[in-house]
Design brief:
alpha/beta, Rossmann fold, 43% helix
Length: 286
């Protein structure tokens, strides 16, 4: 009896805002409907405060959400954040993407695991219709008091701290707190998800360190862009720089439908991973 080979753990790692959903997750419902602010005005205030205080942008926006909720005398709880997160629109094809790409990978001997590494609100991502597909969501979130009110940032993920979560995935550390495990030396061959089987999808400046690091570790980086913003001529310069500056392997529209450029690109990368792994296994036996 021939024993089937186990499927190889392979990670698809996504930024969320601008990658799986257009814009920032807070601006679809939370900021305009709960806080009564124009999203552009809120982000402008974040920009002004971070410069005036020489502060981290993610910590500033997390604090300002609390401040603006207090000014309006409205609560900011996990349930409220999830409620507004549920109203987040997704890019075309996202809803059916995960089952389709999982099946495609499995046919090639790969077991896909989906992760999010985001500067956005973890609680809001938890409210979306696709939250259940992710093995882990690493994103910014709050501490809560006994009444369930958000009181202070518990996790704040910015453009450089995103890279540590790639090592957490690489070493199989599915939490924020275990720094000892993520910093402990581990032979490359013993790591649960080697970088050669990690694909990173991101869209913005906060993803550049992660995309470049994945590339240099032997993984695969794909930059995606909002097709509507591309049509307005807003993103061509950024796309050019991502390729010219060796940040990403591919730049494709955030269209997850079957047969799209993104669909074909990811399937091609998975095929390459499967081919390389087959060659590695064959040479190891020899």
């Amino acid at each position: 009896m021939v024993q089937e080979k186990p499927l190889l753990r392979t990670a698809l790692v996504y930024d969320f805002d601008g990658t799986l959903a257009p814009g920032n997750i807070q601006e679809h419902s939370l900021i305009p409907n709960h806080l009564g602010l124009r999203p552009a005005d809120f982000w402008q205030l974040v920009h002004e405060v971070k410069k005036a205080e020489d502060a981290d942008e993610v910590l500033v926006y997390l604090r300002l959400l609390l401040v603006k909720a207090a000014e309006r005398s409205v609560k900011l709880t996990r349930a409220i954040l999830q409620e507004h997160g549920a109203k987040t629109p997704l890019f075309q094809g996202v809803a059916s993407w995960f089952a389709r790409i999982d099946e495609h990978a499995a046919q090639r001997g790969l077991r896909l695991e989906h992760y999010v590494i985001s500067s956005g609100n973890e609680e809001m991502i938890a409210g979306t219709s696709i939250h259940h597909v992710f093995r882990q969501v690493f994103a910014s979130r709050y501490f809560y008091d006994d009444q369930g009110n958000a009181v202070w940032p518990a996790v704040a993920i910015n453009y450089t701290t995103k890279t540590q979560y790639l090592f957490r995935i690489n070493k199989g550390v599915d939490n924020n707190w275990n720094n000892e495990a993520v910093n402990r030396w581990q032979p490359m061959a013993e790591r649960p998800v080697p970088f050669s089987r990690i694909i990173y999808l991101g869209d913005g400046d906060t993803d550049i360190p992660s995309m470049k690091m994945v590339r240099h570790q032997g993984g695969h980086s794909v930059a995606v862009f909002d097709p509507e913003r591309w049509a307005k001529g807003e993103l061509q310069g950024k796309a050019y720089n991502l390729i010219a500056e060796d940040r990403a392997h591919f730049v494709v529209p955030a269209d997850y439908r079957e047969g799209s450029q993104l669909d074909i690109t990811i399937k091609g990368i998975l095929g390459r991973i499967a081919r390389d792994e087959a060659g590695y296994r064959e040479s190891a036996r020899s």
